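ARCHIVE CARD
Drawer: 12
Card no.: 0347
Subject: one protein chain, sequence and derived structure
Cross-reference: see card 0346
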Amino acid sequence: MERLLERFLFGSRWIQAPLYVGLTLLLVAFVIKFFQEILHSGGHILEMREQDLVLMALSLIDLVLVANLLVMVIISGYENFVSRIETDDDTETLAWVGKLDSGTLKLKVAASIVAISSINLLKAFMNAEDTPNDKLLWLVVMHLTFVVSALLMGLLDKLAFAGHRDH
C-alpha cells in the first residue's frame, strides 16, 4: 500500500507538465508581440526622435528579458520537478541546463525582475515630464523593494545552502 501511494505521489509531478506547455505558448506570444512592436515602429523610424527610439529599444529589451525568464523557468522547472530533458550527444544544449536548482532559479528570477524593473524605471524617467511625481516615487520605491528582496534572497540562499553547494 505504501509503495503504491509513493508511486502515485511521485507520478503526480506530471500534472505540472501542461503548465510548462502553457508557459511555452506564452513565450510564443512574446515573440509575436516583439515583432508587432518592430513592425509598428519600423514605419515611423525616420520621423522618430532619438528619445522615442531609445524607449522603443528599452521596450524590446524588456520583452526579451521576460522571454529569457520564461525560458529559464520552463526548462529548469521542468527538469527540476517533472523529468530530465534527454538530448542526443550531437544535440546542442544550454550550459546551465541541469545546473539550476530551485533555489538558484529563484535567485535568477529575482535578478530578472530587478532588471525588468530597472528598464521600466528608466523608461519612466525618460518620460519624466509626462509622468506625475508621485508615480515616479512609487516606481522607485517598488524598484528598491525588488532590489532589497533579491539581495536578501541571495544572502539567505548563501547562508542556508553554502555548505551544500561546495560538494
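Annotation on reverse: The chain has a mean pLDDT of 85. Residues 6 and 12 are 10 Å apart (CA to CA).
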